[in-house]
Amino acid sequence: MTYFKSISSIRPMIIADIESVFGIEKVNSSSAWSLKQFSDSLQCINVLTVNDAVIGFVAVLEVAGQAELQNISIHPDFHGLGYGELLLRDAIGKLSSDTEQLYLEVRVSNFSAIRLYRKLGFKDVGNRKGYYATEFGREDAVLMSLGVIS
């Protein structure tokens, strides 16, 4: 673990975090969530802080024994340091005891995310053709699933 991880924390997002989270999303995603989407999803988002500054977030929605990883992002200054894995492991650990599967979609070109998901045990379960808009057209999504053991 790096020095930063020893002074990091993960907590539920509060209204005051929305601007920081939105800024991280805009920097990392060409199809960014809106401020309203973050505001509407407040109850299902956790943030990762380092020295009290928000550097990442994860959004997981749980419904009827299923969960969906809706969004996860780390500020570019902190990429490659293990914070994405830390945040995702924490989110998996906080799933309710009746959740059996965690699903996600990821761009086929997002090799680092796919590598992380596979490392944590996610399996490819399908594809969605043209799921993501890009500046050059459409991009496919890989559907992945993780069986959750309570």
Automatic annotation (TrEMBL):
<dbReference type="Pfam" id="PF00583">
    <property type="entry name" value="Acetyltransf_1"/>
</dbReference>
<dbReference type="GO" id="GO:0005737">
    <property type="term" value="C:cytoplasm"/>
</dbReference>
<dbReference type="GO" id="GO:0008999">
    <property type="term" value="F:protein-N-terminal-alanine acetyltransferase activity"/>
</dbReference>
<dbReference type="InterPro" id="IPR016181">
    <property type="entry name" value="Acyl_CoA_acyltransferase"/>
</dbReference>
<keyword id="KW-0963">Cytoplasm</keyword>
<keyword id="KW-0808">Transferase</keyword>
<dbReference type="InterPro" id="IPR000182">
    <property type="entry name" value="GNAT_dom"/>
</dbReference>
<protein>
    <recommendedName>
        <fullName>[Ribosomal protein bS18]-alanine N-acetyltransferase</fullName>
        <ecNumber>2.3.1.266</ecNumber>
    </recommendedName>
</protein>
<dbReference type="InterPro" id="IPR006464">
    <property type="entry name" value="AcTrfase_RimI/Ard1"/>
</dbReference>
<dbReference type="InterPro" id="IPR050680">
    <property type="entry name" value="YpeA/RimI_acetyltransf"/>
</dbReference>
<comment type="similarity">
    <text>Belongs to the acetyltransferase family. RimI subfamily.</text>
</comment>
<comment type="function">
    <text>Acetylates the N-terminal alanine of ribosomal protein bS18.</text>
</comment>
<feature type="domain" description="N-acetyltransferase">
    <location>
        <begin position="8"/>
        <end position="149"/>
    </location>
</feature>
<keyword id="KW-0012">Acyltransferase</keyword>
